Amino acid sequence: MGAKALAARRRTASLLAVALLGFGVACATPVGVARVDPRVVHRTLTSNVLSTSQLSNPTTNVLYRRDLSARFASQPEVVLAELHAEIAADRGSRDDVFALAELSFRHATRTRQRHYFLASMVYAYAFLFPGAGRTPADPFDPRFRLACDLYNRGITEGFSSDDGKLVELKGGSYALPFGALEVRFDDAELRWGSRRLVRLVPVADLEVRGMWARYRWPGIGAPLAASTEPLDPERGFEDFVQPWVKVPITALLRIPEPRQALMTDRVQAVLEIEDATRPTTVEIDGRPVPLEIESTAALAYTLAESPVWQQEIKGFLRGAGVIDEKTQLAALSPYQPGHIPVVLVHGTASSAGRWAQMLNELGNDPRIRDRYQFWLFSYDTGNPILYSAMLLRQSLQHARERIQRDARDPALDRMIVIGHSQGGLLARLTAIESGDRFWRDVTRLPLDKLLMPDRTRQLIRGMAFVEPLPFVRRLVFIATPQHGSYFANNAIAHWVATFVTLPLDVVRIGTDLVTFNRDAIALAAVGQPATSVDNMRPGSRFIETLAEIPIVPRVTTHSIIAVRGEGPPEQGDDGVVEYQSAHLAGTQSELVVRDAHSCQSNPHTIEEVRRILLEHLKQD
């Protein structure tokens, strides 16, 4: 074959190959599959307007089925009106109702038109709880959870303040794209004991930091956190709950027969506020439905807005002045009859906020939450330990007496006190009988023989003559310097302690002793009142006397001791307290956690406290 013929044959083969390739492409199957990462498929199947701003597959299917995809992109309000007309004529299906909820929310987020947020909420409720004679949503349907979220978000967005920072719950007539939403609301819903709920913040929108676990109880309703103000400003706050607490609540909008209501231009609804201090349910259409609760976010918001953090150093350096008649206990919710109080006492230069992780963990355990209530004791940590311990005992006695005025509660007689560091020493001073041992560290002269004002004598007796509290039944010591802290011998610690301003009551003791008993007591014998740093110095008269006094037998004790590193615990320390100092003979249990001194948030510490609390319940 010649060269020309060969070249021609090759051109023909090439043309044939191109033709066959084109024929193959033209004949490729219009439907196919390709193997991809399963996460890609999952994202495609679960994508929705809340997670990715893209419409979910079910809603996209509705638009395609009704040939509305292109029109929704250019004329969203026209498409929403046409879909609603189908529902109003009772021709639309539950698929259409869900699509309207998601489409309305997407349009609302783009235009910030309140009435479309409210419409999304109404449609979502109608999908979840359509009313009598209609099948409710299947909880296994992936749209079920999304509808709950659209409903919840619809409340927070639809009732938001003009600046979008708060939720304003009130009755009235609200515009909808197809008519009006008539809301009934009783202002009494905003009453919380002797307080009024104000400044409602949507906590589901808050990013939480500083908590290594976030608990959320999914359900229906918009989770909010409310500030409070007294109903009667002249009487002020009349409970143990701190003024700065944020109350967790859930807003719920009930719509009777919602599918029927969508056939009219007036949707009737009732707005309610539900207590969200613990997981609970409400009844809708004759069946229990869980409430949405963001417990961790509400707790974090409470602590973030509280003044406790600013008090840590100030509370060490500045004394309390004179004794306040009011309790120094803080609670995050009103007193709960039948729930055993657990009193948490923080350490030096610390605050109640340091218990956040433990409160978050234990408060979300139903075994603990349904049987216990947590009280936080705050004090100025530079004060003499005997003075702070007296305030703790007085606060607990005052709280118990005040509660028992209404009705006797046996749970108050099973109290548990948990103390960290110096707080553990305060806890110990609720369960010992000292006699005059602390007083003899000051003088051998009997207290009753000395001249002084009655208030000074009462103060000395309250501080130095310790009587155990009969209702405290268990103590938990965490990193507690039972025999003193070597850090208290540190020159820097002593230098810092020189800046401590002691309470006027404490300073007055020394002045009165010398002024009224000049011939019996010399000023040098009395000396300057000791700070907590002086008290915790190994070898100090206070710490040695306290270590010698046994804890009353009816009180059960536990120790949690922090030790850094991996060496033998007996030779270790936590950077502030040595193991040998924290070790207390005769405790029912002792746990060593590998951590530094501030170990309250250590998961092993929290698990041990959980175990102890559950064990305490077995002694009913």
Give keywords.
single chain, 620 residues, alpha/beta, Rossmann fold, 2 domains, seven-stranded mixed sheet, 24 helices, 16 strands, 39% helix
What can you tell me about this protein's structure?
This protein is α/β, with parallel strands linked by helices and 620 residues long. It folds into 2 domains: 46-298, no CATH class; 314-448 and 463-503 and 531-552 and 579-594 and 604-617, Rossmann fold, CATH 3.40.50. Helix content is 39%, strand content 15%. The chain has 24 helices and 16 strands. The protein has helices spanning 3-26, 38-46, 57-65, 69-74, 76-88, 94-111, 114-128, 142-158, 258-261, 295-304, 311-317, 356-363, 366-369, 385-404, 422-428, 437-440, 454-464, 491-497, 504-516, 523-526, 532-535, 541-548, 579-582, 603-617; strands at residues 172-176, 179-184, 191-192, 195-202, 222-230, 247-254, 266-275, 281-284, 287-290, 329-331, 340-345, 372-377, 415-420, 472-478, 556-562, 589-593. The strands form 3 sheets. Strands 1-2-7-6-5-4-3 form a 7-stranded mixed β-sheet, with helices on both faces. It has a 7-stranded mixed β-sheet with strand order 10-12-11-13-14-15-16. It is elongated, with a radius of gyration of 34 Å. The protein starts with a helix and ends with a helix.
